[in-house]
């Protein structure tokens, strides 16, 4: 639905449209991974279950009325023939995600490819598009060729540059040759064909996807949602008004970067109080669109700043929210990296209290962590990056308390022997559990017992790229070479990224060196100082637009429904609750 434009009361934020960005999102990702393992399932309704909920389901099941995040019993009622496969072990999903990431990266020239969660990617294709638009013969647009390599003019594909590939949102008539928007139109058209070509290459690996094409990450992600599955949408919006009109149709909570706190504050200020006599609880939720907030007489960047202020909250939240409402998002697509910011493994328990149980669990977690470290960080028998820090987080089991209640962490330098190659992993895992994790546990939970442990999370972080290897494979068509300066520049980017993620242990000065005797020095003691360490950031309330992948891929408990959800999916999960009737 297109809203009628109001004359702006205030100066709107400045929109940049120099970049072209594609957002890719795999269709029913977990289900596709399982289908590829067992192809017969492709034609049957399939649900991937985690505890009592469906993490996702394939589109056969969706056509039968099953939805993502449905409870298993409801889903079985709607579709009794639904086949359920357990999806609590994320390893297979992570491995496919990594493989697909590498494939996508092989297309990028500038290596600006950012992963969001396990199945979404932003790709900044500005350089490829501008190069190809420059080459166009404007008198024969329908016979164009998209070059995938500057060095090899034959590498590429033919395309019709006079029309968009896939679906379009916005102007259906192409701007005339003389219009100032014409070149921008050609750039978006070229990108739409590149998106389609890339999606086809991914399909050859067995995975269908949806894509959105626009000039920033926010718009590309939102427009890509319009036609799913196995489709793509290009936003043709050349003026501020056209962009606002697209944004206006969205409910506030569906806008990435606007978190649940912001939404509930704005709801309570801008919407009439819900009619308690009415059963229609839904109507106020439905009513809070971006349009309503953007055009509300009381809303301005400064009033938003005042409303959203909270001790410790990010400054500039008002301006940022105001920008997002107008479809303005200048956040960069982060450079591709083979190296995750951190790797963590965790499990939840209903009150572990026996030293033996703790020791067994720490050994299991340590073994899984080591396996994951080898999958993610070892290539061709060599480490591409080594973590410097190990962290243990625990929290007691209390049904009546919020998830993060009394969550506490300690961090130590990871001993060098943990990255030994040629030593059996089981031996290293055992030693890590006994010599590093157990002492940390004891510091976090003094006393002989009575800890009632509800969570153990073991994490390695502070990755240091091993010089000469960190570039990774697949620089691809026109990709970067092995220039050492380039490598260090990229290394700097990657490290900057880590710093942004780290809340507790990124302070190099606090990280004591391994003493060489195999036992690391302690570097932080959050619990002792009374500070409770929170790993999870509230979506939308942090710095900049919150696109960051949190590589902490353990399961977290949803505070609304109590289900365990992978951390990276928690934000999307909360959005489903926000949309619930
Ligand atoms: P999504 O991209 O949200 O879902 P999807 O890929 O399954 O389906 P769609 O075709 O609509 O894109 O999430 C990617 C994967 O993350 C999904 O396959 C399962 C997992 N996930 C959870 O485990 N819990 C959640 O709450 C959400 C939202 C996703
Ligand atoms: Mg998906």
Automatic annotation (TrEMBL):
GO terms for molecular function: damaged DNA binding; DNA-directed DNA polymerase activity. The keyword Mitochondrion applies. One of its GO terms (biological process) is error-free translesion synthesis. Residues 503-551 are annotated as: Disordered. One of its GO terms (cellular component) is mitochondrion. Residues 503-512, 541-551 have a biased composition (Acidic residues). Residues 21-259 form the UmuC domain. Its main location: mitochondrion. This is UmuC domain-containing protein.
